Amino acid sequence: MSDTNVKWDHAYEWKAVMLLSLGFGLVGLDRWIIAPLLPSMMADLNLNYQDVGLVFGALGMAWGIFAILSGRLSDRIGHRKVLIPAIVFFSLMSGVSGMVHGLVGLILVRSLMGISEGAFCPTSFAATAAAAKPSRRGILQGLQQSGFALFGLALGPIIATQLLLVVPSWREVFWVVALPGFVIGLAMYFVLRDPEHTQGMENLAATKGEEARWADVIRERNVILCMLGLFCVMSCVFVLSAMVPLYLENYLKLSPQDMGFIMSAIGFGGFAGQFGVPAASDWLGRKIVSIVSFVFAAIFVWFFAQTGVDMVMLFTTLFILSFFSFGNIALLSGPVATEAAPPGLVATSIGLVVGAGEIFGGGIAPVISGAIAEKYGIESVLYFALIGVTLGALVSLFLKETAPRKISAAAASAPTAE
Asked: Could you tell me if residue 367 is left (phi over 0), alpha (psi between -120 and 50 degrees) or otherwise beta?
C-alpha cells in the first residue's frame, strides 16, 4: 500500500507511540534500577560478582525465551492481550524485588520479571510499526525504544541514588518505581488498537487466506544477521550497564552519587542514539548506519577503558559509546527486523531477533562477565564489551539494504527496459 495515498490517523499514531514509549521506558526503569542499588544489595544479601552475573543472566534468559514465544503469540491473538497484562505483571515483580532476602529469591523474581518484559518488548515494537507511517517507521520505532535508555539508564541511576538518601533502604526504591506501570497499563487499555484496526500494518500483514509460517522468518538473511548483530551489541550494552557501577565504585573508588551521575551517561547517550540512529537510517540507509555505529562504539569503549578518575571524560566517552550501541539495538530490532519479516510475521520476526540477542547478550554474556570480573578483576569486563562491538561491525557488512527511501530511490534510478 502506498505511503502517500492514504489519509493517516496522526492522532492515534502519536498517542500510541507515546504510550508505547512510556511503557518501554518503564521496562528499562524496572529492569535497570537494580544496577545502581547493587553495592547496597550485595552487602545486605551477601552477593559476589558471579552472583550479580547470575541475577542479570536469569532475567535475560527468561526475557529472550519469552520474546521469541510472545512475538508469535501476539501475531495470532493481537497486541493488546499481550501488552496490557505484561506491563501490569512486570511492574508488580519490580516491587516484589524489594522483598527478597537471598540470591535464590532474587533470581526467581527477576526471572518472572524477564518473562513479562520479554513478552512486552517485541509486541510493543510491532504495535509501533502498526501505528506508524512506513516512511517514518525508523524514527518512530527508534523514539519508542528510546524510552528504555532514558528511563532505565539515564534517569534510573539518578533516581535510585537520590532515593537512597530519603527512603529507609534499597528495598523501598523498587516499589516507588513500580507504581507508574499500573497507570500506563490502564491508559493502554483505553487507547491501543489491535493490528487489524491500524493503517501502518496493512502493508505488513499476511494476504487474506495465506497462512504465515514461523519457519519463513528463519529463511530471511537479515533476520539471521540481526540476531548475530544483537549478540554482539548486547554483549557490550548489558555488560556495561550491569558491571560499570561496580567498576566505578570498587575500582575507581567513586562515591555512589558520582557513580550515579556517570552511569546516567549510558541512558542519556542511549536515549539519543535509539532515536537518532534509526532516524538517520531512514535517510542514509540501514546498512551503512549500522556499520558506522558499531565502529564508533568500539572506538569509544576502548577510550572509556583508558580513562581514569576524570568525571568529564568518563561521562563523555560513556555517552558516545552508548549513543552508537543503543542506536544499533534500536535499528536492528526495530526497522531492520520489521522490514525483513515475511507478511503477517512482524512481531514473530522482532521476537526472534530480540529473543536471540537477549539470550546471549542479556543472559549468557553477564554470566561470562561476572566470571571474568571474579577471576581477573572488574576492569577486565570492558574488553569483553569491546570484542562484542568489534565483531558487530563485521556482521553488519553483510546486511541487505531495506530502508523504504533507499529502495525507492534505487528503483527510480534503475534503467527501464525498452
From this structure: alpha
For residues 225 and 398, the answer to whether their CB atoms sit within 8 Å is yes
| CB neighbourhood size of 104 (10 A) | 9
How do residues 60-102 score in pLDDT, each as one tens digit?
889 889 988 888 788 788 889 999 999 999 999 999 999 999 9
Cα separation, 319 vs 317, in Å, equals: 5
319 CB contacts (<8 Å, ≥6 apart)? 265, 266, 268, 269
Q: Which three cell numbers stand for residue 103?
A: 540470591
Report CA Rg, the chain.
20
Burial class (CB in 10 A: 0-12, 13-18, 19+), 305: middle
- 87 Ramachandran zone, left/alpha/beta (phi>0; psi -120 to 50): alpha
Look at the block and give the residue holding cell 530480540.
354
The fold for domain 14-205+213-397 equals Growth Hormone; Chain: A; (1.20.1250)
Q: How far is CA 282 from the centre of its chain?
A: 19
Question: Rounded CA gap, 28 and 252, in Å?
Answer: 26
Instruction: Give the model confidence (pLDDT) of 115-151 as tens digits.
Output: 999 999 889 988 888 887 777 777 888 889 888 888 9
Q: Hey, what amino acid is at 189?
A: Y
- Cα pseudo-dihedral 151, 185, 199, 410, rounded to 10: 20
Distance CA 391, CA 398 (A): 12
| Cβ 216 vs Cβ 349: under 8 Å | no
